[in-house]
Design goal:
There is one protein chain. The longest helix has 14 residues. The chain has a six-stranded mixed beta sheet with strand order 3-2-4-5-6-7. A two-stranded parallel ribbon has the order 1-8. The protein is of the alpha/beta class. The chain is built from three helices and eight strands. It has a single domain, classed as Cytidine Deaminase, domain 2. The two termini are about 20 Å apart. Helices cover about 25% and strands about 35% of the residues.
Amino acid sequence: MSALVIPGSIYRELLAQARKQAPIEACGILGGRGDRVEVFCPMTNTDHSADHFLMEPAEQFKVVKSLRAAGQRVLAIHHSHPASPSRPSAEDIRLALTPDVLYTILSLQGPANPVLKAFAICEGVVTEHPLAIEA
C-alpha cells in the first residue's frame, strides 16, 4: 500500500485553514494523481459545527468537475478535529460513503503538535493508511 503524499505547502494550507476556522471543523477535498496530492480545495462546513462537518453539495460537484477537467481525481475527503484526536468519530465512519477515497483528519487537540492521519473507511471498517508529508 503506497503512502498518500502531501507536499509541505499543502499541509501548511490544511493547518492554516484548521487554525483559522477553529473551534469549527474545517473541511475540504484533496485532489491529485496516483497517490500524490496536487491541490487542496477548501470547502464550506455548512453545519458550522465543532464536532462534525457537512460540505455543500453544489460546491463539491464544482470541485470534482474541476479536478476531472485537470486530469485529477479526489484522493481524500479532509476535515479537522479542533479538540479531539486524529481518528474517525462514529459519525465520520457512518458518513464515509465513498469507499474509493481516503479520509484525512487533522487534529489540533495539542495546538503545538497538530497530527494529520489518513484512513480508508469501507462499510464501517477503518484502516489507517500510510501518509507522507514532504518538506
